[in-house]
Amino acid sequence: MKKILKKANLLGVMLLAFISCSDFEEINVNPTAASEDQVQTEYFINSSIGGTQQNPHIAERIFILYWDDAGRMTRVGTLSEGSSNDGWSSDYYNGYVSSWLRNINAGIEIADKQIASGNFKEHTPNLKQVARIWRAYIMSEMTDNFGPIPINGFQGVNPEYSNVKEVYYYMLQELNEATAALDLSVSNPGDALKKLDPAYGYDYAKWQKYGNSLRMRLAMRLSEVDPAKAQSEFEDAANNTFISDASENFKVKEVAGWNDYTGVMTRQWWDHEVSATLNNLMIGLGGVTSQSMLSADKHSHIKPANYMGLKFDNHFSSMTNDPSAGFFFDGLQNTIDPRAYDLFKIPGDFSDPEFNAYPSWNSNASITKRNLVDASDTVVKEIEAAFTWNAYAAGNWGEKGSKNKVYGFTGTLPRLANKYRNDSNSRIFFASWESHFLIAEAALRGWNVPMTGQVAYEKGIADSFTYNGVSSQLGDYLTSQDYSRVGTSVSWTHTIEPAATIAVTYVDGYTATAGNMNLKYPENTIYKNGAIKNDLLTKIITQKFIAQTPWLPLETWSDHRRLGLPFFENAAIEKPLTDMPQLTNGNFMTNSINFYGQRLKYPSNFSSNIPGGYEQAVDKLGGPDSVFTPLWWAQQN
Q1: Among 129-138, 146-155, 521-530, the least confident range
Q2: What is the C-alpha to C-alpha distance for residues 370 and 385, in angstroms, rounded to an integer?
Q3: DSSP strand pairing (501-508 vs 307-311)
């Protein structure tokens, strides 16, 4: 990996020389510039993949502060509350994305020049196709964040901006042509080239599978607005080779330090606690008991089924449609999705080797006792959060939040396992489970795909269970008809809707008085007016969301923008949200595409430096340059 990083640094010098000249003749007469032999396509591919991996600076801003929040993999309070930061967006749009695209475009141009001259290596045509596949991914990332982008951008000329439909059609065509053009009979010339591809080591068959899987992802993105195009592109890709096994996953090994390969979730000051969205999806889902998954020393902390916890009306916000709002759960859930305990670690379980104790400079992760106080800061209740399982909605908790020392404190929350935080993992860009969930959705839509919806759905779940090391629970899980807290079950053949409410018990946190109530399942009014909670599409997207955690929050955000699935709770509004005034105390129990961010605004220096390009981009966006303007393919209802 160190050699790869050195190549990337050398490439920066080479790239400057390359883009400052009109052709290779000018490079060759410049004794300080790289020669044609030195500047090879594989260097640019390596640099572009490395850059897209995101160094800690950009990863913190984009992956964590934007995508994790928008994709509801953790609670941050940015796009979920309608806010964005111009500096973060500028870093991404101007400094990083343009570099990644410029590099990959330069690599393709070099390959074209070498092929045209007849002076090229046997593998050069294949590297060009690999570069085209990777360029399609980078473009998809950029357009799914901002909207209109230039198809011919970052090539040294002022580009024309294309609307999102045009960008998608271009990416799909590129993937179709590039995967078909890969020559799988070409031999790999050896380790020197393999080391410059951190994902597949230039295994062209795997690149072809990735290209087809990526095409499936992008085709499905169009399912609601351009179904004929979506079906045609998807069927062509799915009936070819695609990522169907974990050995084919597109992943890049993380390394320690501060560079492009440093883990995207390694910054110690972020808790990465389980989100309310994910928690509500997992509670009760699959019917697997905590007792069957946890060691005997934890069994005393497991609570009865249908128990909600301690009710604290004066300290926990209830002004959100989060069905768990208002409660502190003073134990472990009776049943929960088996992946929960692999992904996130129980507060106070310090003997678990995967318990993450960040930040290393204080002991907050080991402090599990916190207080609820009154307006004069007098302790009302001491809360012991060790061996409890809670997740809270983002938003403005107002006075309740100021008196609550529990809900935002590191040591009281289930947090992401150490293996995702310590640079020891591989960042996943595409996994086999996604291929199978995409095929399951396509089958549900009646498209011609290579397996039934049920087979694909269950294979996606199985792949995810294998990844999380919980395959022993798979059999019982797949047949479960138990409902999650949002009213969805696992079994493919079980599509009976839950009752409107479920009888639950609780304890008044102030008086210790036991109580009973009917808990209403939330109504996801974006999807089928909130009437449907347990149809096949909801099952597929629920399972896809859990499987994508924690690597692909951009995809969970995109699925929700496209379909309104799975259920996303609204931010709490004990006080109005400055950046989202449309969410009020009169409508917070309903869902709307106006109640969460749909995109990133273009950075301000784009509008100031290239006003003509900015005007063109916004015109093709189809609405104001606002986080609430949906992209062309996004859910519009």
Answers
A1: 146-155
A2: 8
A3: parallel
Provide the CA 346 distance to its chain's centre, in angstroms.
23
- Helix residue spans in 409-549 (DSSP H): 432-444, 453-467, 474-478, 536-548
CA distances from 423 to 11, 231, 265 (A): 25, 39, 8
Each residue's pLDDT tens digit, 422-445: 999 999 999 999 999 999 999 999
Residue with tokens 């790869």: 4
Residue 377's pLDDT band, with cuts at 50, 70 and 90, is very high
Q: Could you tell me if 352 and 346 are in contact, meaning their C-beta atoms sit under 8 angstroms apart? A: yes
The residue whose two tokens read 């003997």 is 351
Task: Retrieve residue 450's tokens.
Answer: 């290579």
Residue 483, amino acid: Y
Distance CA 406, CA 404 (A): 5
Token pair listed for 414: 């289930």
* Structural contact between residues 439 and 238, judged by C-beta atoms closer than 8 angstroms: yes
Beta-ladder partners of 369: 384
Smallest Cα–Cα separation from 500: which of 520, 518, 516, 482? 520
Smallest Cα–Cα separation from 565: which of 583, 579, 544, 580? 544
In the beta sheet, which residues pair with residue 273? 415
Rounded Cα distance, 131 and 103, in Å: 10
Report how far apart, in Å, the C-alpha atoms of 119 and of each of 45, 77, 202 are: 20, 54, 21
Residue 495 tokens read as 């599509």
Pairing of strands 327-328, 307-311: antiparallel
Written as one string, the DSSP assignment of 32-84 is TSPPTTT--HHHHHHHHHHHHH--HHHIIIIIIIIIIHHTTSS---SGGGT--
Strand partners, 519: 502
3-state secondary structure of 573: strand
Token readout for 219 is: 């085709």
Is the pLDDT at 203 greater than 60? The verdict is yes
Q: How close are the terminal C-alpha atoms of the chain, in Å?
A: 47
pTM over cut 0.70: yes
Ordered DSSP codes for 229-250: HHHHHHHHHHTS----SGGG-E
Place of tokens 């009976």: 496
* Orientation of helix 41-53 relative to helix 124-146, angle to 10°: 30
What's the Cα-to-Cα distance from 367 to each of 347, 405, 409, 410, 413, rounded to whole Å?
Answer: 9, 12, 9, 8, 11
Name the nearest CA neighbour of 277 among 486, 555, 457, 82.
486
> Which phi and psi angles does 611 have, rounded to 5°?
-60, -35
- Percentage of the chain lying above the pLDDT 70 cut: 93
Pairing assessment for the beta strands 572-573 and 395-396 based on DSSP bridges: parallel
Reply yes or no: is the peptide bond before residue 550 cis, omega within 30 of 0.
Answer: yes
- In whole angstroms, give the CA distance from residue 99 to residue 421: 27
Question: Cα separation of 217 and 238, whole Å?
Answer: 10
Distance from the Cα of residue 98 to its chain's centroid: 21
CB 302 within 8 A of CB 389: no
Structure tokens at 614: 């900015």
